[in-house]
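Lab notebook: predicted structure, single chain.

Context: the supervisor wants predicted structures on file for every construct in the current expression panel, including those that have not yet been purified. This is the next one on the list. No modifications to the sequence; it matches the entry in the shared construct table.
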Amino acid sequence: MEYDYVIVGAGSAGCVLANRLSADPSVRVALLEAGGPDRKFEIRVPAAFSKLFKTPYDWNFSTAAQHELGGRELYWPRGRTLGGSSSINAQMWVRGHRADYDGWDVPGWSYEEVLPYFKRAERRAGSNVGGVYGTDGPVHVTELRSPNVTTTAFLRACEQIGITALDELNGPSNEGCSPTPVNQHRGRRWSAADAYLRPAMGRPNLTVLTGAQAGRVLLDDDGRATGVEYGGTRVTASREVILSAGTVGSPHLLMLSGIGDPDVLRAAGVEPRRELPGVGRNLMDHLGAPVVLECPQPVTLAGAESAGNLMRYLLGHTGMLTSNVGEAVAFVRTTPEEPAPDIELIFGPGPFINHGLTPPPCHAVTIGVILLRPESRGVITLDGEGGVVIDPRYLTEAADVRRLVAGLKRAQEVFAAPALRPYTGKPVEPYTGAESDAGLAAYVRDAAETLYHPAGTCRMGLGEDAVVDPSLRVLGVPGLRVVDASVMPALNRGHTHAPVVMIAERAADLISGP
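Prediction complete. Output recorded below exactly as produced.
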């Protein structure tokens, strides 16, 4: 059980690293994944991702009670299988805005510096205006095979109220509306495991261990990371241990290993080994609230599970089951003073309620209103027994409520546009149809849910609150890096899968370079 590199977590970042590092036949790489293989049929079916929620393929996290959300504890699905969350997500490949990466203000991570790593990952099929995308990478990025008629109407409605139609969503600016580019190949999900891990699993120098939940990072007497312990087994790393366990898992593992705020560690009965107060802090997430309206025509994804649609998928990988549910997006500014979009509108041609866990009550259409740049900050910490506590502290900053209310009004405008009128009716619960600021704010507090994009808990940078340096090395702990969404200093105005792949592509160069 001795390797050069030990990677913890076979999610989006871990799969990239396992592939890139093991490409050198002279190094030995171990990849540890707490979950099992990704063989389940629903992983392949794009529209079936909610069928994986609250199953063994999901960590099934819940947050602490959120004071500003009426004391609700929010469900947080996170992938627990090969591919991680890229095996249970909605397959949306959305890089974000140029200002996101320039705004990180970290040497080596500006937009122009990270752009080549996005392109290295991408294998674009379809339009590529201006050469926005890479074309020979491992990650398939394509258009939906069978977009819904209501999705076309949504995009026309956006234009009717003055939202610009984009030639390509993933250019330097994403302000405008667009069909969603998806990680699919021939109508099937294309996860990070498909793109990176499976092509590398035949290499004799790569060992993939499933059912291997890491308990702590091993540190020698000098404080250097030397390996990982899981289930009583020790796996050693002669060069580096790399944590890619995600925004929840990576800070949790650091704290269990004695790395973090000494007061937090002692309160949980963990002996401090390295004082690093930023571990677990700076937690951010994209919070959203849905506008859901009945659809008077039986054309939505409420009928996706019919025998006919199943046969279309099985025989030709076409039809409603190839939908990623979030079929189109619009990125908008709620005021002219915003430097870049602060709200995302995600269109779903069906009633996406309660994370898709609630059976469709009727044919309906949904616009999810997403807060892109939350000012509220939360924390990942330990309970008294070493378990993880997730406290996002949603809406503790008043500006977050104001922006979400403005976003809901914009969604109502889109639904009122002529192109969507044939497909909209009365509100569907939990949406109330409120129109006043007070009514919409109350609705946000009652109904807002995560968009599954937590980030920031092992922040990279140069300040006192940083956990990793610009090369993603844990400060003061030789031989240890963190490579996943937890290192992001601020959330991107997009989705987190694409930037995590980019971060891991760049990290592979940082690790194996001179």
